[in-house]
Amino acid sequence: MKLIFAGPSLPDAASLAGEGIRVLPPATQGDVLAAVEQGANVIGLIDGGFEYAAPVWHKEILHALSLGVAVLGAASMGALRAAECHPFGMIGIGRIFEDYRTGRLVDDAAVALTHAPSALGSKPLTVPLVNVSATLDAMEDRGLLESRLRQQLDDTASAIFFKKRTWRAVVEQCAGLAEPDRQRLLATLLSNAVDQKRIDALGLLKVVQDVRDIRSTADQPWKLHNTSFPTRPAL
């Protein structure tokens, strides 16, 4: 059984996944463990709860890996956990994962955003820093943004709390811009916006769709040891 946990990074995951892949809401603590107990042998972690719910526990991912379950991560919580667990066999996909794995990104908040409830499609309502950086990089590469302004926008976006970070807020709070320039810049940013989280999530979905061979534990160089903490969190 294949399944993915997806939300605002890929709101239309259910319509894209295709036959044979079960799409679940963003994962919280215990969900990966439950998926393994229900027979999942391929798990794609994209989105996960973190503020008002306990996040996915590293140990439940290690438990899945120890049983030969293929666990992949990308885009958001999945990229974070893949960067932390890739030495144990979790597969990370995409730019965001690579940035966390190599240390170019260190703050978990870089992937945080607010979004509509799942009943309304989980549409993102704010812009995560990883999308800001990808957009500014692309615009600078195409000559649409000079490096000094690019850095000012990056610094401004980083200083805005994730629940209030929109492109309009970034432009309005960027010092030294005349009002007509702000309107033109906002329009340019919106028309060139790069949704890196979606790009990485689509990359994970493609791998989950294509994967055929399930991991073997035969050559696994580590063993999951019992600890004083239960595998399933106590309620």
From TrEMBL:
InterPro entries: TfuA_core (IPR012924). Residues 47-166 form the TfuA-like core domain. Pfam families: TfuA. It comes from the Bacteria. This is TfuA-like core domain-containing protein.
